[in-house]
Amino acid sequence: MASLGTAPPPDDTEAPKKVKRIPGEEGTWIFIFGDMTVFAVFFSVFLQSRIGDPDGFARDQAELNQNFGAINTALLLVSSLFVVLAMRAVQSTTQRHLAPRLIAAAWLCGAGFLAIKILEYTEKIQHDITPQTSDFFMYYFVLTGLHAFHLVIGLVVLVVLYKLSQKPEMTKNQYSFFEGGACFWHMVDLLWIVLFPLIFLVR
Amino acid sequence: MSVHTVSADRPADLLKSSSTVVWLFLIVATVVSWALGTDHGGIENHTAASLIILAVAFVKIRFIGLYFMELKDAPLVLRAIIEAYCLVVFCVVTGFYLAG
After folding, report:
1. In this structure, is residue B80 part of a structural domain?
2. Among partner residues B37, B65, B73, which is closest to A197 by beta-carbon distance?
3. CB-CB under 8 Å, A189 with B64
4. Is residue B11 part of a domain?
5. Span A54-97, pLDDT tens digits
């Protein structure tokens, strides 16, 4: 017999099960997964080309500055953390005011990545290394250039997210765009996470 | 309009999530990959070091997909796509690498 005051808690006090939901718009995911698939083809084409001349690829890779690549990876990871925190700030009632500053910090990290990339390209060109130098450097410039192009689009998206995060309240569509934009920025990070080892580290 | 609310009394409370732990892992994994790829990692066999570097990269992108892009709470189809992407692309990339 259950005694008074020791009854088990009613079912509705149990932790609610997380509802499965799509972050952002459905269309955003078609674009993100489509882009990731295109890059997967690029990764494969790069390595397939390496099969024909592994020694040449290794020799050219030794000309790269791995430290630039590692610093850029760290910058993108820090920027991704800022975007995660901005997302949480937007979802918070008390820390919402921090969201614009967190997005701005993410943007600065992204701009830092671009600055280092420009420094890296300048260094290569000063040493007469161009896309015409070899197959390796053709892939190096094309793949890192395409990624940098995505990063520039990401920086524009972050400017829009900055503006949205300044609003006291977002509409459903604006919130979806904010989530989708955050996911796009993470995709820019994700692609670099594969490109960096593939081009700079794998021997 | 946000779908769920984050409880954060102080700014530092925004860091209290599994994403922060994942981020720390990603930073450590980056340092490990850099060390292995630049002869600081203690593995002289380049093939073994490269295979570890590739495996670490795909574990990293899986975590970015699941935690940063929040696909761990997404419908099964989206989660399955990111899991399949990591597995399939890792196998293809590793296959091409080993053939070289």
Report:
1. yes
2. B37
3. yes
4. no
5. 999 999 999 999 999 999 999 999 999 999 999 999 999 889 99
State whether B61 and A83 contact (CB < 8 Å): no
Burial class (CB in 10 A: 0-12, 13-18, 19+), B77: exposed
Q: Do A74 and B27 touch (CB under 8 A)?
A: yes
Domain spanning A27-201, CATH architecture:
Up-down Bundle (1.20)
Angle of CA points A73, A76, A77, to nearest 5°: 85
Contact assignment for A47 to B97 by CB distance below 8 Å? yes
Nearest residue of B to residue A39, measured between CA atoms: B89
ipTM of the modeled complex: 0.92
Which of A38, A54, A21, A68 is CA-nearest to residue A142? A38
Calpha distance A8→A104 (Å, rounded)? 49
pTM: 0.91
- Short-list B5, B65, B11, B70, CA closest to A99: B11
